[in-house]
Design brief:
Layout (H helix, E strand, L loop, with lengths): L12 E2 L23 E4 L20 H5 L7 E4 L7 E2 L2 E3 L9 E4 L7 E2 L1 E5 L6 E4 L2 E6 L2 E4 L5 E4 L2 E6 L2 E3 L10 E5 L4 E6 L2 E2 L5 E5 L4 E6 L2 E3 L4 E6 L2 E6 L2 E3 L6 E4 L4 E4 L2 E4 L16 E3 L7 E4 L2 E4 L11 E3 L2 E3 L2 H8 L6 E5 L60 E2 L9 E2 L2 E5 L4 E2 L5 E6 L7 E4 L4 E5 L3 E11 L4 E11 L9 E6 L5 E10 L8 E7 L5 E4 L4 E6 L4 E11 L4 E10 L2 E15 L4 E4 L1 H4 L6 E11 L5 E7 L10 E3 L5 E8 L6 E5 L5 E12 L6 E12 L16 E5 L12 E9 L5 E7 L6 E7 L5 E8 L4 E6 L6 E11 L5 E17 L4 E5 L11 E11 L5 E7 L10 E3 L5 E8 L5 E6 L5 E13 L4
Parallel strand pairs: 1-7, 2-3, 3-6, 4-8, 5-9, 6-10, 8-11, 9-12, 10-13, 11-14, 12-15, 13-16, 14-17, 15-18, 16-19, 17-20, 18-21, 19-22, 20-23, 21-24, 22-25, 23-26, 24-27, 25-28, 26-29, 27-30, 29-32, 34-41
Antiparallel strand pairs: 30-31, 33-36, 35-39, 37-38, 37-40, 40-41, 42-43, 43-46, 44-45, 44-47, 47-48, 49-56, 50-55, 51-54, 51-56, 52-53, 52-55, 57-64, 58-63, 59-62, 59-64, 60-61, 60-63, 65-72, 66-71, 67-70, 67-72, 68-69, 68-71
C-alpha cells in the first residue's frame, strides 16, 4: 500500500527544558504577519498579546498567535534564553493544502530548536482540534500529566522534529507523547524523540486513518512504544523503540499497514507499577489485523546489558515467536528481519553493523534523512543488503561518514587588521571527496573551497567573530565546526577597580566587607576572563561586563586587591585598590556578668561565650570592670587569651575601696580574654560587656566629639542647679544636643561625682528601658571621682542615679557617640601597648602624646584614640583633661585623682589633625601619667 512520503523541511537538533515560565499579555488580537508571513512569539522581550505579533512587538504567549493565525502563516516561537512557555495551547484554525499553517521553534541563525511549551496540568501541552493542513516542527514539550501533543478530528497534520518529555517518572504513567484520535486522518509523526514516563509513545485510536510514524526514537514508555488500534493505512517505519516495559510496536483492532525498518530493543527490567509487562513481545499484531499488515526489515535487539532476559520477539495473531527465524517460518513475513543484536538507543549504528545499508528504501513512509536530519548515506565499508541506492540503515539513525576537522584548521587570532586562513585538511573516514564552505562571521560572503587549498581571509575591523566551517562529503554528509576568532584592538582593554564598605540602607555598615566595583571596559567583548584577588589569599573569577561583588575579610587590616584582566589574545592588564577592613560597634545591653575572685598574680580566663564575643567577626569587647575586696593595691591587666601578657593596666584598685573602669580588650585569636591580677593580694572583679567590635556584622560607627559639658549640677548646666540627693536621679537629654543626633544608638560620657557628702557610687542607665545600666565612679566622702562609660540610647536620654546616702554634685561630659555611618569612624583594635610610661606633667601643664603611625594605628585618617590613662600615687588632688591637640582646652574631666591613690580610667579621646592628643594636668601638684593604647578610630569609609 504505497503512499507518498511526507514532504519535510531541513533538520534541526532538539533539546528539552523542563522549567515553567508564566505567559504575559491579554486577549486575542489581529495578526500582522508582514511580508514574510511570520507571526512572532517571544516573551523574553517587550511583548503584547493584544498586539499584532510583529517582530518588534511579538505575542507573549503561543495561544495568542494560535488564535489569529491564517493559512500560509508561520508562527515563529522564539526563546533566546531557553525560557519555556507555560500554558496549554489549543489550535482550532486551519491552513490549506497550498498554504499550510506552520508552528516552529527553529531559531533563526541557529541549528537547533528550543523547548517552548511546558504545562503542569492534565490536559495536552498542544491540542490540534478539528484542523487541517497544519505543520508543527522543531518544538519541545514538557508535561507533568496527560498527553504531550493530541490530534483530534484533524487531517493533513505533520508533526516533525519534536522533543516530548515528562520531566519525571510517573507511577502509574498516563497519557501519550502523541495521540491521534479516531476522527483524524493523514497524520505524520516524524523525526521526533519521546522520552520516558508516558504510558504510550505514539498512540492511534480506532477510526484513525493514514497515519505515518517514521524515524522516531521512543524510550521506555510504560504501556507501549507505538500502539496502533483500529487504524487503516498505518505505516510504522524506521523507528527505534526501547521497549523495556511493554510491547515496542503493536497493531490491533483490525488495523492495516506496514511495519518496516524498525528496531525494537528489549532491556532488563523488573515488573512494577511503572513497568507492567517487561517480558511482552517486542512486536505484536493481533489476529484481526494480520491479514492487512506486512512486516519486514525489522530488528529485535537487546540493549547490550547482561541483565536483559530472554524475551518473545514477535506475537502474530496471538502466536508467540521467540526468534525472527521462527517468525519467518511460521508466517511468511519478516524475510529480512534480524535479531540477536545489541543496540544502544539514541546512537547511530556502529561501523560494520548489520543495521547499516540493510533497510528497505521503498518502505512506506521511509524518509531521505534520519532523526538528526542526516541524509541516507552509502557506507563503502559494508555491502548493501537492503534495497535502494543508497540503501538506508535500519532504525531512526543513519550511520554517517565520520568527517574529522583538525583542531588547528580554524583561523588564528591577532591584532586587526590581520590575514589568516582555514586549513582544508579534514579527513573523511569513508575517503569521500570533501568540499568546504566557510563563513568568517564578519558579514562577508561565505567562501568555498576544496581539499588541499587553504581558504584565506582578512579581518579588517576589531571584533570577535564566529567562524563556521562546513565540510561536506560527496554523499551530502556534513560536519560543522565552529571557532571564535578575535581581531583584537591595538592595545588590550584597560582594567579598573574600586572598593567601598558594605553599607545598608539603614546606615549601619559591615566594615570588614568590601563591595568591589569593576566597570565594563571600553572593549568588553575583547575580555577573556577576569580574576579578582582580594589580598587575603583568596580570589574570585568575574563574569563579563560591569560587575559588583562583595568580599568579607577575615580580620581587620589594610588589604590590596588586584584585578587581573586577560583579553582574548592573552594580553593582561591589572588594576589595584586598597581596602581597610575594620570594626563596627555593636551596642550591648550590659550583661554576661561574671563575678570572680582572682588570687594574687593569678589569671581569670573569660570565654568568648561569657563575654558575648562568640558571634561573627568579633575582634574586641568593651568591658566594664568593678573591683572590690582587694587585699592589696594593684592593677588588672586584660589581654587576648593565648597571647603574651602586656605591661598595661585596665583598672587599678586598693584595699578598702571599690573601683570601676571601662576598657577595650582585643579578643582574637580565640575569642577568650585573660584577666591578670598584678597585686600581691586577691581581688574580686565583676565584669560586664557593654559593647562589641566586629568586622563581620552590621554595626555603628563612632563619632568622636570635641569634649563638651552636658551636665553640671553646680552651675545648672543640663537643667539641674543643685546637688542630687542620695538615692535620687537626674534625667539628662543627650540626643539632639551638642551634635548628638536623636537617632544615636549609644553615647560615650565622662561622668563625675564631686562635693560628695558620703561615700557612694553613680549608676548610669538607658532611659525608657529596664535592665540597661552601668556603674559610674565609686567615691569616698569628699572625694571627686570620674569614669568613662558607654551607654545605649533608646529615646536619646540617660538617667544618672546617686547611689550614696548623701548628696553629691554630678557632672557629665560628652566624649562621642555611636550611630549611622555618615561622617563616622570605624575601629581598629590593637594589642594593648604602653605608649606613655610614668611621664611627669607639672601642675597646670600640658603633655602632647602622639598616638598615630605605630602599633597598628594608621598614620593618617585617625579620628580618636582608645586609651587607658593612669595617674600613679599623686601628692595632691586634681584631674586630667584629654583633648585633641590644636584645639582649645575644654573644661571637662577625663580622669579625677585623689592624693595618695593610684587611679586609672578609660579615655576614648578625639585626636588632633597632627595625630596627637593633649593631656592637661588641672591639679596643683605634678603627677606621673601612663597611657596604654587599646585601639584607634579611623575615618569612614574604609577606602
Amino acid at each position: 500500500m504505497p503512499r507518498s512520503r511526507p514532504a519535510l523541511g531541513l533538520p534541526l537538533a532538539m533539546i528539552v527544558v523542563t522549567g515553567v515560565m508564566s505567559g504575559l499579555g491579554t486577549g486575542p488580537a489581529l495578526a500582522d504577519p508582514g511580508t514574510d508571513g511570520t507571526l512572532y512569539v517571544n516573551h523574553d522581550v517587550t511583548c503584547s498579546d493584544s498586539g499584532t505579533g510583529t517582530q518588534s512587538l511579538p505575542f507573549c504567549t503561543v495561544q495568542a498567535a494560535a488564535d489569529v493565525v491564517e493559512p500560509g502563516d508561520t508562527v515563529l516561537i522564539l526563546s533566546p534564553d531557553d525560557d519555556p512557555y507555560s500554558g496549554a495551547v489549543t489550535l482550532t484554525r486551519s491552513g490549506t493544502s497550498d498554504a499550510p499553517i506552520t508552528f516552529t521553534g527553529a531559531q533563526p541563525g541557529t541549528a537547533r530548536a528550543r523547548a517552548v511549551l511546558s504545562w503542569p496540568g492534565s490536559v495536552p501541552a498542544l491540542t490540534l482540534d478539528a484542523v487541517h493542513d497544519v505543520h508543527v516542527d522543531s518544538l519541545a514539550f514538557t508535561n507533568d500529566g496527560g498527553n504531550g501533543v493530541a490530534v483530534t478530528g484533524s487531517k493533513g497534520v505533520i508533526l516533525d522534529r519534536l522533543a516530548i518529555n515528562h520531566p519525571a517518572l510517573a507511577a502509574p504513567a498516563t497519557g501519550s507523547g502523541v495521540s491521534v484520535d479516531g476522527t483524524s486522518s493523514d497524520v505524520t509523526v516524524s523525526r521526533s524523540s519521546i522520552g520516558p514516563s508516558y504510558a504510550y509513545g505514539v498512540r492511534t485510536e480506532p477510526g484513525a486513518a493514514q497515519v505515518t510514524v517514521t524515524t522516531n526514537v521512543i524510550l521506555t514508555t510504560r504501556q507501549g512504544g507505538i500502539v496502533v488500534t483500529g487504524t487503516s493505512g498505518a505505516d510504522v517505519t524506521s523507528n527505534t523503540v526501547l521497549a523495556a516495559c511493554a510491547t515496542g510496536i503493536s497493531l490491533d483492532g483490525a488495523s492495516s499497514g506496514a511495519v518496516e525498518n524498525n528496531i525494537a530493543i528489549s532491556a532488563g527490567a523488573a515488573q512494577s507499577s511503572t513497568c507492567p509487562t517487561p517480558t511482552a513481545a517486542l512486536y505484536a499484531v493481533s489476529a484481526d489485523s494480520t491479514g492487512q499488515v506486512t512486516a519486514d526489515y525489522n530488528v529485535a535487539a537487546k540493549d547490550g546489558g547482561p541483565s536483559a532476559p530472554a524475551r518473545t520477539e514477535y506475537s502474530w495473531g496471538g502466536t508467540p515467536y521467540a526468534t525472527s527465524a521462527a517468525f519467518r517460518a511460521g508466517t511468511a513475513q519478516a524475510a529480512h528481519d534480524l535479531d540477536g543484536l545489541g543496540v544502544t538507543p539514541g546512537n547511530q549504528p556502529p561501523e560494520r553493523s548489520p543495521l547499516v545499508d540493510s533497510a528497505d528504501a521503498t518502505a512506506p513512509g521511509e524518509l531521505t534523512t534520519d532523526l538528526a536530519g542526516n541524509p541516507r548515506a552509502d557506507d563503502p565499508i559494508v555491502d548493501n543488503t537492503g534495497t535502494g541506492t543508497p540503501a538506508p540503515d535500519r532504525g531512526a539513525l543513519e550511520r554517517e561518514d565520520v568527517i574529522t576537522i583538525p583542531a588547528d584548521a580554524y583561523p588564528s587570532s591577532g591584532v586587526a587588521p590581520f590575514d589568516t586562513s582555514v586549513k582544508t585538511d579534514a579527513v573523511s573516514n569513508w575517503a569521500k571527496a570533501l568540499t568546504y564552505s566557510v563563513d568568517f562571521g564578519d558579514g562577508s560572503a561565505p567562501a568555498t573551497g576544496t581539499q588541499g587549498t587553504p581558504i584565506s581571509h582578512s579581518y579588517s575591523t576589531p571584533g570577535r567573530y564566529l567562524t563556521r566551517v562546513t565540510v561536506t562529503d560527496s554523499d551530502g554528509t556534513s560536519k560543522l565546526g565552529t571557532n571564535w576568532t578575535t581581531a583584537g584592538t591595538a592595545t588590550p582593554p584597560a582594567a579598573a577597580l574600586s572598593a567601598t564598605a558594605d553599607t545598608t540602607n539603614g546606615g549601619q555598615t559591615d566594615t570588614g566587607s568590601a563591595r568591589f566595583t569593576v566597570p565594563a571596559p571600553a572593549d568588553a567583548w575583547e575580555v577573556g576572563y577576569r580574576t579578582l584577588s582580594f589580598g587575603d589569599g583568596t580570589q574570585e573569577n568575574l563574569a563579563d561586563g560591569a560587575e559588583q561583588t562583595t568580599h568579607q575579610y577575615p580580620a581587620p587590616g589594610t588589604y590590596t586587591a588586584t584585578l587581573t584582566q586577560t583579553d582574548l589574545l592573552g594580553r593582561t592588564t591589572t588594576a589595584t585598590t586598597t581596602f581597610r577592613a575594620a570594626d563596627a560597634f555593636i551596642p550591648v545591653t550590659p550583661r554576661y556578668d561574671t563575678e570572680k575572685t582572682i588570687a594574687a598574680h593569678g589569671v581569670l580566663k573569660l570565654s568568648a561565650a561569657t563575654l558575648g564575643a562568640d558571634s561573627n567577626g568579633v575582634d574586641a569587647a568593651q568591658l566594664q570592670l568593678v573591683t572590690s575586696n582587694a587585699k592589696a593595691s594593684g592593677a588588672l591587666t586584660l589581654y587576648a587569651h593565648g597571647t603574651t601578657r602586656p605591661g598595661t593596666a585596665g583598672i587599678t584598685f586598693e584595699p578598702g575601696r571599690t573601683a570601676t573602669a571601662e576598657t577595650t580588650v582585643k579578643v582574637t585569636p580565640t575569642g577568650a580574654v585573660d584577666v591578670y591580677n598584678g597585686s600581691s593580694g586577691a581581688v574580686t572583679v565583676d565584669v560586664a560587656t557593654v559593647g562589641l567590635q566586629s568586622h563581620a556584622q552590621y554595626g555603628d560607627t563612632y563619632h568622636p566629639a570635641t569634649p563638651a559639658r552636658l551636665l553640671d549640677t553646680r552651675t545648672g548646666t543640663g537643667g539641674v542647679h543643685a546637688p542630687v540627693a542620695g538615692g535620687h536621679s537626674v534625667t539628662l537629654a543627650v540626643g539632639g544636643t551638642h551634635g548628638v543626633p536623636a537617632g544615636a544608638t549609644a553615647v560615650v560620657l565622662d561622668v563625675t561625682a564631686t562635693t560628695t557628702k558620703a561615700s557612694g557610687s553613680l549608676t548610669v542607665s538607658t532611659h525608657g528601658t529596664s535592665g540597661s545600666s552601668v556603674s559610674g565612679p565609686f567615691w569616698t566622702t569628699g572625694q571627686t571621682a570620674s569614669a568613662q562609660v558607654v551607654i545605649p540610647l533608646k529615646d536619646g536620654k540617660i538617667v544618672l542615679r546617686n547611689g550614696s546616702k548623701a548628696s553629691a554634685n554630678l557632672v557629665a561630659d560628652l566624649a562621642g557617640w555611636y550611630g549611622t555611618t555618615a561622617n563616622g569612624s570605624e575601629f581598629l583594635p590593637v594589642t594593648p601597648v604602653r605608649v606613655l610610661k610614668a611621664a611627669r606633667i607639672a601642675a597646670h601643664a600640658t603633655l602632647k602624646l602622639k598616638v598615630t603611625g605605630a602599633h597598628g594605628v594608621p598614620a593618617t585618617g585617625v579620628t580618636a584614640a582608645d586609651l587607658n590613662l593612669t595617674v600613679s600615687a599623686p601628692s595632691g588632688n586634681g584631674y586630667l583633661v584629654a583633648y585633641p591637640d590644636g584645639t582649645a582646652r575644654p573644661g571637662v574631666y577625663s580622669l579625677s585623682f585623689t592624693k595618695g591613690h593610684t587611679t586609672a580610667n578609660r579615655a576614648l579621646t578625639k585626636v588632633g589633625a597632627d595625630g596627637e592628643i593633649d593631656l592637661y594636668n588641672a591639679g596643683s601638684v605634678p603627677v606621673n601619667v601612663s597611657a596604654d593604647l587599646l585601639g584607634g578610630c579611623v575615618a569612614f569609609p574604609a577606602s
